[in-house]
C-alpha cells in the first residue's frame, strides 16, 4: 500500500486537539448500515532518549468482543516527513523515513488506553515496540540547521488485517484508517504541565528577550519547594513541550520523584536559542550568557506570582549540558538565592572560574553528575576539575557522581543482535540517571549519606534548605 503524505500534517505542533467526530456510511457484508464514529489517538510519552509513540487507542464506535481480538488483527505503518538542507548547496528538500511498527499486544481498554477486564468494549489499545534506535517511533527530528529538536510531520496508517465481531455477532471490518479519519495526539506526562508560559524582559545590553516556559503546580495548600530544570542546547526554541520531552523532564512531576519532596512545583524555562549564547550567537568564551538577567527575572517573577505556594528556602536549580552550564552561571549570579543545585554533564569551563567564584560555590549544596564516555564535554576540564577545587576549598556539601558509561539501567533495552548487555547511550547523556533518580554514590564510590542514611540524588536534594 502506498501511504499518502500529510495525514497528520502540523498536528504535532498543536496542544491536545479535540477529537473530530464524523458519521460514515460504510458497506459491509453487501449491505449499507449506519455506524457510530470511528477515531483514534496516538499516545506519546518521554523516554530516556526522547519521546516515542508507543500506543494507539482506537474508538471503534461499536462494542467489540474481546476474544476476537489478537495482536495480529492490525498492522501499523508509520511515516515521518521533515525539512532537510544540503549544507554544500544550501538547497532545501523534504526528508522522510518510514516503516512498519512492531505490535506487542492489543487489548480492550477504556478511553484512556487502560486495559479492561470486560469481555466487550468499543475501545482497542494497540501497544507497539519502542527502542532508542527506532526513529520511526519518534515525533521529533534533530534539525542540523538550528541544532534543535523539532516536531516532524507524522503519519500513521492502521490497517485491519482480520475481522472482529461485535456483541451481536456481526463482522466488524471497517477499522482501517483513511486520511480523513479523526485523530488526536496524547502526550503523556506533558498534560499536567502548563506549557503556555511566556515572559518578556528588556535587557539593557541585549534588548528584548522572550522566554517560554512550562510549569507544574501540585494542588495542595501547603508551601512547596520549587525544582527548576534548565534544558540542553537541543531543546531551545519557543515550544516548551520540546523541553519537557527532549529529555525525560516530565519525570520531575512523577510520584517517583515527587514523593521525596512531599509535592514540589516544577519550572522548566526555555531559551529561544541556547543558554551558552554570549549575545553574538556564539558559544561563550568567558562564562557569560545573554540570558542571565532575563532568566533570573523570570524565576523571581514566577516565585512572586506563586508566593503562597512556594517555599523560598527550598528552591533547587539544575540542568543538563548547556543547562548545566547555566546552572553554575545562575549560582554565581545569585549565590544566596538557591538552596541547592544538581547540574549534569555541565559545560562550564573550570578555567573560567576565579578563586572568588569558587568561594561563592563552595557554600552552596551541589551534586554534579557526569560520565567518562562524554565526547561532547571534556569532564576533566569542567565538572571534575570544579568539584576537586570545591573540595580543596573546604566545601562541606559538594558531591559528584561519575561513571564510565551511560547504560540502560531499566533492564529493558539491550544492544541487540544477540548481544543482551545493557544498551549504551551517548556518553554525554549522564542526565538520564538524574531524571531516573538512579544516583546515590559520590566521586569516591561511597554512598552519599544524610544523618547516616544513604540517599539518592533527589532524596538529598529534597533535604536541602537555606
Automatic annotation (TrEMBL):
Pfam family example for this protein? Peptidase_S9
- What Gene Ontology molecular function terms does this protein carry? serine-type peptidase activity
Q: Does the keyword Membrane apply?
A: no
Q: Where is the Esterase Ig-like N-terminal domain?
A: 39-171
Q: Which controlled-vocabulary keywords does the entry list?
A: Hydrolase, Signal
The residue range of the signal peptide is 1-28
Gene3D superfamilies, sorted:
2.60.40.2180, alpha/beta hydrolase (3.40.50.1820)
| Biological process annotations from GO | proteolysis
Q: Which InterPro entries match?
A: AB_hydrolase_fold (IPR029058), EstA_Ig-like_N (IPR041172), Peptidase_S9_cat (IPR001375), Plant_Biomass_Hydrol_Est (IPR050955)
Identify the residues that the record assigns to the Peptidase S9 prolyl oligopeptidase catalytic domain, covering every copy. 301-347
Protein name from the UniProt record: Predicted peptidase
Native species = Paenibacillus polysaccharolyticus
> What lineage, starting at the top, does this entry show?
Bacteria, Bacillati, Bacillota, Bacilli, Bacillales
Amino acid at each position: 500500500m502506498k501511504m499518502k503524505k500529510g495525514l497528520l500534517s502540523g498536528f504535532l505542533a498543536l496542544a491536545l486537539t479535540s477529537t473530530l467526530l464524523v458519521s460514515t456510511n460504510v458497506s459491509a457484508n453487501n449491505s449499507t448500515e449506519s455506524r457510530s464514529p470511528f477515531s483514534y489517538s496516538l499516545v506519546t510519552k518521554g523516554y530516556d532518549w526522547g519521546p516515542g509513540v508507543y500506543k494507539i487507542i482506537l474508538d471503534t464506535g461499536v462494542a467489540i468482543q474481546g476474544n476476537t481480538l489478537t495482536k495480529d488483527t492490525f498492522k501499523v505503518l508509520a511515516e515521518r516527513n521533515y525539512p532537510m538542507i544540503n549544507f554544500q548547496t544550501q538547497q532545501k528538500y523534504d526528508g522522510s523515513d518510514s516503516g512498519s511498527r512492531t505490535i506487542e499486544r492489543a487489548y480492550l481498554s477504556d478511553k484512556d488506553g487502560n486495559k479492561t477486564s470486560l469481555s466487550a468494549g468499543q475501545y482497542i489499545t494497540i501497544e507497539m515496540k519502542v527502542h532508542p534506535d527506532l526513529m520511526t517511533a519518534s515525533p521529533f527530528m534533530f534539525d542540523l540547521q538550528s541544532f534543535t529538536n523539532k516536531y516532524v510531520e507524522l503519519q500513521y496508517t492502521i490497517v485491519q488485517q482480520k475481522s472482529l465481531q461485535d456483541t451481536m455477532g456481526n463482522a466488524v471490518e471497517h477499522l482501517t484508517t483513511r486520511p480523513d479519519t479523526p485523530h488526536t495526539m496524547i502526550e503523556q506526562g506533558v498534560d499536567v504541565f502548563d506549557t503556555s508560559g511566556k515572559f518578556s524582559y528588556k535587557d539593557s545590553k541585549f534588548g528584548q528577550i522572550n522566554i517560554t516556559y512550562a510549569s507544574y503546580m501540585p494542588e495542595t495548600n501547603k508551601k512547596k519547594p520549587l525544582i527548576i530544570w534548565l534544558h540542553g542546547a537541543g531543546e531551545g526554541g519557543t515550544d516548551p513541550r520540546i523541553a519537557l520531552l527532549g529529555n525525560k523532564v516530565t519525570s520531575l512531576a512523577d510520584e517517583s520523584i515527587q514523593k521525596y519532596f512531599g509535592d514540589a512545583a516544577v519550572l522548566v524555562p526555555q531559551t529561544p536559542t541556547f543558554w551558552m549564547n554570549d549575545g553574538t550567537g556564539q558559544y561563550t568564551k568567558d562564562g557569560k550568557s545573554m540570558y542571565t538577567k532575563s532568566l533570573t527575572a523570570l524565576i523571581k517573577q514566577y516565585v512572586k506570582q506563586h508566593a503562597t505556594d512556594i517555599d523560598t528556602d527550598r528552591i533547587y536549580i539544575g540542568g543538563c549540558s548547556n543547562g548545566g552550564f547555566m546552572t553554575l552561571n545562575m549560582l554565581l549570579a545569585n549565590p544566596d538565592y538557591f538552596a541547592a543545585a544538581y547540574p549534569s554533564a555541565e559545560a562550564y569551563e573550570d578555567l573560567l572560574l576565579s578563586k572568588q567564584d569558587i568561594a561563592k560555590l563552595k557554600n552552596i549544596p551541589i551534586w554534579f553528575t557526569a560520565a567518562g564516555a562524554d565526547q561532547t564535554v571534556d569532564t576533566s576540564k569542567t565538572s571534575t576539575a570544579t568539584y576537586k577545587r570545591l573540595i580543596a576549598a573546604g566545601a562541606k556539601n559538594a558531591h559528584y557522581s561519575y561513571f564510565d558509561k551511560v547504560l540502560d539501567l531499566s533492564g529493558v533495552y539491550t544492544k541487540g543482535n544477540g548481544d543482551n548487555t545493557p544498551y549504551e547511550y551517548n556518553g554525554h547523556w549522564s542526565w538520564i540517571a538524574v531524571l531516573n533518580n538512579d544516583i546515590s554514590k559520590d566521586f569516591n564510590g561511597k554512598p552519599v549519606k544524610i544523618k547516616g542514611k544513604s540517599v539518592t540524588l533527589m532524596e538529598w536534594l529534597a533535604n536541602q534548605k537555606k
